[in-house]
Amino acid sequence: MGMGREQAVRRALVYGLIGGIVAWHLSLVGLIEAFAGRRLIGQGVTFSYVLLLAVMLTVGYLVARRVSNWTGLAGAALAGLLVGLALWALALLVDQVDLRTIFVAASPTLPEILTFNRGAGAVGLIVLLLVGAAAGFIGGGLTWFPATGRRAVITALSITVLVGLLRDVLNPVLPALVMGFLFTTTGGLSLPGAVVVLALALAFPIARHVVAQRAGERRAALPAPARRRRRAVFRLISLVFLVSFPLWAGLFLSNVTDFVGLYILMGLGLNLVLGFAGLLDLGYVAFFAIGAYSMAVLTSPELGHFTLGFWEALPIAVAITVLSGILIGLPVLRMRGDYLAIATLGFGEIVRLLVLSDWLKPHLGGAQGVTRIARPELGPFVIDRPQEYYYLILIGCALAWFLSVRLRDSRIGRAWMAIREDEDVAQAMGINRVTAKLLAFATGASMGGLSGALFASLVNSVIPQSFSLLVSINVVALLVLGGIGSLPGVLVGALALVGLPELLREFQEYRLLVYGAVLIAMMIFRPAGLWPEETRVRELEEAAEEARARAPAEVVVVTQDGE
Amino acid sequence: MPVLELESVHVYYGPIHALKGVSLTVEHGEIVTLLGANGAGKTTTLRAISGLIRPARGRIVFEGRNIAGLPPHEIVRLGVGHVPEGRRIFPRLSVEENLALGAFTITDRQEIRRRLEEVLQLFPRLAERRRQQGGTLSGGEQQMLAIGRALMMQPRIMLLDEPSMGLAPVLVESIFEVIRRLNQQGTTILLVEQNARMALEIAHRGYVLETGSIVLEGPAADLARDPKVQAAYLGARE
After folding, report:
1. Nearest chain B CA: its distance from A329 CA (Å)
2. Residue in A with minimal Cα distance to B85
3. In angstroms, what separates the C-alpha of B232 from chain A's closest C-alpha?
4. Which parts of A271-331 fold into alpha helices (H)?
5. Chain A interface residues facing chain B, Cβ-Cβ under 8 Å?
């Protein structure tokens, strides 16, 4: 028992300290203050508090995970209390010393937010300590639940938070009556609304579990044609959903979806290059830019070179991008891995600097960019609203998807995979490295170019700032997040990395911070991505199995515990 | 006419002169072995033949045609199968996919399927594991897969680079048995080996490479009796 107590105290100190550092970090980079305005439930519960509470809960959970008795719970409460203490110390520090020359976020409002408006005095201290200890205790208590129940609770809480966050998104979608019940007029969820959402989020997985079990049995008993019919029905429903989306989603959501779609197009393109052929292209934005600027130069009357219509310019823009893909591919044919990455990174920057340059200003618009880019016309009808562009982008994505599937299962797809696995041996199998790589660059570029051309027309203007390195990083990151080489992974990655930040405006500024955190978490918890390619799943599962077979029993218990 | 003939082939890796005028011939239906210490240039010789490295000077004549300087994928199409050192199968692809890639030069799917069944018949162990990922096979099975993959293109000559490397003695025996059987079925083989004893046992003729030059050549039985070869490569006691 003495051992248990000692261990619990040590763990509480360590995790309390780590939690304190995390809380300081979140506060000083400005996240806490930025999110203080996001009311999730009523007027009081803001997203800042949810973040800080999450830190305390996690800390408590981590402490009690290994020591599952009352000592563990006490340790969990102690760790939470330490986080509370750290927060109060920060509040006191910011209150007394002006740190704003170093940390812009250390403003006078920060101590108020951190101490629930109780001030950095004795009252604030007591409140923070109590909140911390309680949250730590509850977090520790979570370890007493069975794993499935715990997951259900955590998921339900996350969903409730998410619903609260997405108020503005849901507003145009849900009927006014439902909105009025769920949300307060000025803040986030109303109290009954929150309870209902939480209850639904809790009940849904349980119901699904019960139904799925029965349905699973029934489905297994179904004959093959019936199963196929069921899949066809599912596909039809998805199609109806996709096609009807702009009709009920409203302007804001359609706009966000358009951007997600443009990134899906780019993701599919880069997936050919990076996922299938294994060529790490860090300058993919170059193709996006070339597509966009081709569309601009070909259609805008501002530059006066050409004044083609959208439909004439589109294939030319794509063709120009394909050509540029080959031009970029040629000099880097012999490069591999990191060398290729650095060379392509350079290309991306070169393109951005070229469109920014004064030298090319008469032709490309320079820093001011180009406006008045053509809109697509269908007879008398001009496509100019995001809801209408949605369909263009949807068709583009569907085409790119179809092309990707066909290429993956073709001879050239196999050649790409062989090159990805082992370039030398691929050549010894009779694969022409030059044509295979150039084809990968060219087809990958075409999708980026299409995305760029649609983008230029959608926003009606191009400026060099839209084509920064960040676009390339976004596309690579969404591939990594979804699972490199996996087509559904592109969708999931784009929704998570492009869609969510667009919806949560406050995140925009902290995008890179969140990216970093998300990617690190991914490496640890889902190394193959959110929706991995099938072979990758097999490989990692087998590796895990092997490790389990080799490892002594004790270690196995720990890893299972860790899940 | 020999199947393969190298005439004073020179290869450089940057400033390093790796092959200093290597000449050798392989006749139809032969097993010819290339012996030598680490770094003597055995692997380089094979890489030069299959075009993975371009020789600076010299001719490489395959069935009467100079193939020196051709890109590797064209040399493969002419009928040169290369089983690289360290096996180098595609670890994330299945056994079947690995084999199918071996027949990449063939476009007829039916023909690929037919050859696949042929190769799987030759290696029953692989047939049992046809859907398994290459990387999960044992060392011996991977070597079989590498050889099987090269067989898929039905090569006129097969270049085998250290097929026994890293394998248990029992497996080495069975790999060499496979090589002998392939040869009896008519495949010409150029075999690079560190295990000189085994290599000389199954080969018809042999060459000894030392720092980029051929220093000794002759029938395998003669080489096996040569005192210098015995001292250097067969581990004979004084």
Report:
1. 18
2. A425
3. 32
4. 285-299, 310-329
5. 411, 414-415, 417-418, 421-422, 424-434, 535-536, 538-539, 542
- C-alpha neighbours within 13 Å on the C-beta side of residue B6: 26
Least confident of A126-130, A384-388, B59-63, B232-236: B232-236
Q: Under a CB-based contact definition with an 8 Å cutoff, are residues A113 and A33 in contact?
A: yes
Distance CA B54, CA B48 (A): 6
A418 with B133: Cβ contact below 8 A: no
Between chain A and chain B, how many beta carbons pairs sit less than 8 Å apart? Answer: 66
For tokens 């995305």, name the residue.
Answer: A451
- Region B43-62: mean pLDDT is 94
What residue segments make up the domains of chain A, in order of their start?
A: 1-144, 232-532
3-state class of A248 per DSSP?
Answer: helix
Task: Show the tokens assigned to B84.
Answer: 């690289």
Banded pLDDT at A439 (limits 50, 70, 90): very high
Alpha carbon separation from A401 to A85, A275, A411, B205 (Å, rounded): 52, 14, 18, 56
Residues of chain B positioned with their CB less than 8 A from the CB of A436 = none
Query: Which chain A residues touch B101 with a CB distance below 8 Å?
Result: 414, 418, 426, 429
Indicate yes or no: CB of A417 within 8 angstroms of CB of B52: no
CA distance A204 to A156: 9
**For A156-187, what is each residue's pLDDT tens digit?**
888 888 888 888 778 777 888 888 888 887 77
A539 or A133, which is more confident? A133
Q: Return d(Cα B191, Cα A20) in angstroms, integer.
A: 65
For residues B174 and A458, give the distance between their C-alpha atoms in angstroms, rounded to a whole number. Answer: 66
- State which H helix or E strand residue B143 sits in: helix B139-151
What residues of B are in contact with residue A434 (Cβ under 8 Å)? 71
DSSP A122: H
pLDDT of A34: 84
Phi, psi angle pair for B80, to nearest 5°: -105, 110
- Average pLDDT on A335-351 reads 90
**Residue A499 carries which DSSP code?**
I
Tokens in use for B180? 């002998």
